[in-house]
Design goal:
This protein is an alpha+beta fold. It is about 45% helix and about 25% strand. It is built from five helices and four strands. The chain has a four-stranded antiparallel β-sheet with strand order 2-3-1-4, with helices on one face. A hairpin with a 4-residue loop joins strand 2 and strand 3. The chain is globular, with a radius of gyration of 19 Å. The termini are far apart.
Length: about 150
């Protein structure tokens, strides 16, 4: 049996500032998914983030993969920073596809093959750039391990 008093003491209360549009989207999602509170949704989101981080730390050995991202190409200097990062890792980039979605947004898919640690490093550099609106890294073992 769980001791509720002990559980209550272990909970930590935090404050978070969010833009209105992000909070509205989050509230809509937690309502659709049937969460009983924002706190429950935030705990689930944090668990998901931790799982993703742990998965990213386990990308090792020879891998193939993709980085899919949407970014604001009007963001000053962003395209040049992305190009510089990709040139630094040209040894693992097999090809990339660039699609203009609208006046501001571009979709890019980068196809990779190489050491998992370098793939992860490249992805993290791109993911952290200001102006990248969406990004996802997907990897699988190289074909010799499939």
């Amino acid at each position: 049996m769980i001791d509720d008093k002990k559980t209550e003491k272990e909970l930590m209360r935090i404050g978070v500032s969010l833009p209105d549009n992000l909070l509205t989207k989050f509230d809509n999602i937690i309502e659709e998914r049937g969460y009983s509170s924002r706190s429950e949704g935030i705990r689930d989101a944090i668990r998901s983030y931790i799982n993703h981080y742990e998965w990213m730390n386990d990308i090792k050995g020879k891998r193939v993969g993709t980085i899919s991202l949407v970014y604001d190409h009007t963001k000053r200097g962003l395209s040049n920073m992305m190009a510089d990062i990709q040139h630094e890792h040209s040894n693992i980039i097999k090809t990339s596809i660039h699609v203009h979605l609208d006046h501001e947004n571009c979709l890019e898919v980068v196809v990779l093959e190489g050491d998992g640690i370098e793939i992860k490093l490249l992805a993290e550099k791109i993911l952290s750039l200001n102006g990248v609106k969406f990004s996802k890294l997907t990897t699988v073992p190289s074909t010799d391990k499939l």
